Amino acid sequence: MANEILHIGSVDIEVTFKAIKNLHLSVHPPDGRVTISSPDFYDLEKIKIYAATKLAWIKKEQAKIRSQEREESKLMITQESHQFLGKRYLLKVIEANTPKLVLKHNSIELYTLPEATLEQKQRTLYNWYKKELEAKIGNLIFDYAKLMNISDLNFGMRKMKTKWGSCNIEKRMLWFNIELAKKPINCIEYIVVHEMVHLLERNHNKNFIILMDKFLPNWRVQKKILNELPL
Question: Which residues of 180-218 are buried (b: 16+ CB within 10 A; e: fewer)?
Fold first, then answer.
């Protein structure tokens, strides 16, 4: 697979050549990144002409994504609002000798050293997010691996700027964005199934859609909900 960058007006488009039959144009949240998957027998000039005809649509989609509601920067202070699995919790910061986090009915209790910095408080929260998300995703992968007849795969969590998840087919490794811990479990399930289906079908083609419909019939609803939540 080869990658090229097209510059059409003010828009940069990442072009990937694959063994597919048709062009696939996508505009991705959270920043409006534009990609085209192209059959490997197309030349760049043909793709450029196609992209130019879609420029108005691309800009409309980018504007929609960029106007989407964004989370405010967190100060990690008491009474601040935080999300976990799609639910809103109020943070309660408590001075303690050992940093830890405890989830209550409507609040998140953050135990922290008196001299803890903003970054240290954030790290305690994100370490907890990571642990909780790993458990949720681990259970989903266990269930869907049996349904899909998939074995020998690994997964991990990390911070990602432009993706909710990724799949390295050769290494059979799935990566998930830690920010997913803030989203409803049904949206997390959609991302898990999406990445696992890539182990059965590399490309976003007709077969990929058929497999998504088979394993998660309401995936389109969950995708729409996820894309409309604050970033």
Answer: bbbbbebbbbbbbbbbbbbbebbebeeebeebbeebbee
User: What fold characterizes domain 81-228?
Assistant: Zincin-like (3.30.2010)
Residue 48 CB partners (closer than 8 Å, separation 6+): 6, 8
Across the chain, which has 231 residues, the per-10-residue mean pLDDT values are 81 91 85 90 92 92 78 89 96 96 96 96 96 98 97 93 88 96 97 97 92 97 88 65
Domain ranges of the chain: 3-66, 81-228
> Phi and psi for 169 in degrees, rounded to 5?
-65, -45
Q: In this structure, what token pair is assigned to residue 127?
A: 């370490």
User: Is 0.90 surpassed by the pTM of this model?
Assistant: no
For residue 69, give every residue at least 6 positions away whose Cβ sits within 8 Å of its Cβ, in sequence order, or none.
230, 231
In whole angstroms, give the CA distance from residue 101 to residue 93.
Answer: 9
Torsion of CA 210, 191, 183, 95, to 10 degrees: 160
Cα 97 to Cα 225: distance, rounded to the nearest angstrom: 40
> What is the rounded distance in angstroms from the CA atom of residue 211 to the CA atom of residue 116?
48
Phi, psi at 187, each rounded to 5°? -70, -40
Sheet holding 100-103, edge to edge: 81-84, 87-95, 107-112, 100-103
CB burial string 18-45: b at 16+ within 10 A, e below: bebeebebebbbbebbbebbbeeebeee
> Residue 13 pairs with which residues in a beta bridge?
6, 34
